[in-house]
Specification:
Elements: E1 2-6, H1 16-29, E2 34-39, H2 54-68, E3 72-76, H3 86-89, E4 95-96, E5 100-105, E6 108-113, H4 123-132, H5 135-142, H6 146-164, H7 169-172, H8 176-182, E7 188-191, E8 198-202, E9 205-209, E10 217-224, E11 234-238
Parallel strand pairs: 1-2, 2-3, 3-4, 6-7, 7-9
Antiparallel strand pairs: 1-10, 5-6, 8-9, 10-11
């Protein structure tokens, strides 16, 4: 069994190379008995499970083929696709994970999360995150027309981009205390979000940051039952 961890693909019809890279990944590993974990920001924006489009249908079809061959797909929401739910994943027997999830593997307790909740120094973002992801607010938004949700998502992206221009990287990166709390009951923390792929080793515990998907490559993590903690490395996936 091989466990494959990816995040921050930011798929959209505006970036066909990224879509092709993801489809190539599915095709390359579909016969390898894979458990695929997508740790948020799979899509650049997600306006609801009722959204349909030809480019998305192509992805769903290949995901279904991947799943039908015995592979399993798990997904955690990110800050860009927090509205994605089990209804969409049901198209290909995917499983929606909670915001934090513990995986016991290679005799290690591995905590999985997207990573945005660790950026506690970004107070304005954390305030927005708490409001927008409240079940009542999210339920209301999902009940509005698709066109309205699309305009709202575009507005959020523009506002976020403008706001981030005036924030230092330190504010938008993870907070060390938040990381220590996350690792209190885990041996390894795997997350994305910060777009700074690296394996951090501190006090005998690892924090593995997955890479965001660029125009021709991404930093991903593979673990199999023969792996050991000393040999864990990020791998570059070229497409």
């Amino acid at each position: 069994m091989t466990y494959l961890f990816i995040s921050d693909l930011h798929l959209s019809p505006n970036h066909p190379r990224l879509v092709r890279g993801f489809l190539d990944l599915l095709d390359s590993y579909k016969h390898k008995n894979i458990q695929l974990y997508i740790l948020g920001d799979w899509f650049n924006a997600w306006i609801g499970d009722d959204y349909t489009a030809p480019w998305l249908t192509t992805i769903i079809d290949q995901l279904k083929e991947f799943s039908d061959l015995g592979n399993q797909i798990y997904f955690q929401v990110g800050n860009r696709d927090f509205a994605l739910g089990q209804k969409f994943l049901d198209h290909f027997n995917g499983i929606l994970l909670p915001d934090t999830f513990e995986l016991n593997l290679i005799n290690q307790r591995i905590r999985l999360e997207h990573g945005d909740a660790l950026c506690t120094d970004d107070v304005s973002y954390q305030r927005f995150r708490k409001i927008i992801r409240h079940p009542w607010i999210l339920g209301f938004l999902k009940s509005t027309p698709l066109a309205f949700r699309q305009k709202l998502a575009n507005g959020f992206r523009k506002k976020s981009a403008a706001s981030n221009q005036h924030k230092s990287y330190d504010i938008m990166d993870v907070n060390q205390h938040a990381v220590e709390v996350a690792l209190a009951n885990a041996d390894i923390l795997i997350h994305g979000h910060t777009h700074q792929p690296r394996i951090h080793d501190g006090s005998g515990k690892l924090r593995i940051v997955l890479g965001d998907w660029r125009e021709d490559h991404a930093e991903i993590l593979m673990i199999d039952t023969k792996s050991n903690v000393q040999n864990l490395n990020l791998q570059t996936w070229h497409y």
